[in-house]
């Protein structure tokens, strides 16, 4: 019991610190986040409390209103924090990789399976929808990079569907904030063992960046492809 209590007391400050840090980062991009979240909580609690007085049960409706107000505040804060995070990542090299690495269970992400000297990059995600190649960079340059990688995937895993997505705000492109939703909406056509088999074949093939350590999240702006490397 004592160990469990100590673990809980250690974890709580960590969570609170993380929430505080997230709030500070969100406020830099969204100065009204505190007012909006507080307003949502007050209005939600006020509506339920007023309803409680109206039906002569202010105590019970007040407790319910408090709980629902807290839930509503958490949802609104989470959405605004996510929007602020996407706004800060947008346009940075490697931003798509950061989104893919947080897509959720059932997906295996490999950042930078193909890259050129101009930092145009193709990332790969494998899940029950098949293989998804996600390109980010200059649309004119990255098209050939994406086409070459897609052709290679079709040769290696002939029985697995290969999708391609280009991140951006132009015509035919997918905005960064909608990337995760776009992948999750793809039809699931593979079973778990088929996904594992596809990952094994791709892992055996090896990737362009397999021997280069990559930071989690967006890549540094000064990063360049090694002179000895070749774009795929």
UniProtKB/TrEMBL annotation:
Superkingdom to which the source organism belongs: Bacteria
Keywords assigned: Membrane, Transmembrane, Transmembrane helix
InterPro entries attached to this UniProt entry: DUF4191 (IPR025445)
Annotated stretches, region: Disordered: 209-232
Protein name: DUF4191 domain-containing protein
Biological source species: Streptomyces melanogenes
Transmembrane segments: 33-53, 59-78
């Amino acid at each position: 019991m004592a160990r469990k209590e100590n673990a809980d007391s250690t974890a709580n400050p960590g969570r609170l610190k993380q929430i505080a840090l997230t709030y500070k980062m969100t406020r830099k991009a969204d100065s009204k986040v505190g007012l909006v979240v507080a307003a949502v909580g007050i209005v939600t609690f006020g509506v339920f409390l007023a309803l409680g007085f109206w039906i002569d049960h202010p105590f019970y409706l007040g407790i319910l209103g408090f709980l629902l107000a807290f839930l509503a505040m958490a949802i609104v804060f989470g959405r605004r924090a996510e929007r602020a995070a996407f706004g800060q990542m947008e346009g940075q090299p490697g931003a798509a990789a950061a989104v893919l690495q947080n897509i959720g269970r059932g997906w295996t992400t490999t950042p930078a399976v193909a890259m050129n000297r101009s930092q145009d990059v193709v990332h790969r995600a494998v899940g029950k929808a098949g293989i998804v190649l996600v390109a980010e960079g200059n649309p004119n340059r990255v098209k050939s990079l994406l086409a070459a990688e897609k052709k290679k995937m079709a040769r290696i895993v002939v029985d697995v569907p290969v999708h391609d997505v280009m991140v951006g705000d132009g015509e035919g492109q997918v905005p960064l904030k909608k990337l995760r939703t776009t992948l999750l909406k793809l039809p699931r056509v593979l079973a778990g063992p088929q996904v594992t088999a596809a990952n094994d074949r791709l892992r055996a093939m090896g990737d362009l960046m397999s021997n280069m350590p990559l930071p989690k999240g967006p890549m540094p702006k000064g990063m360049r492809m090694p002179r000895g490397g070749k774009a795929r």
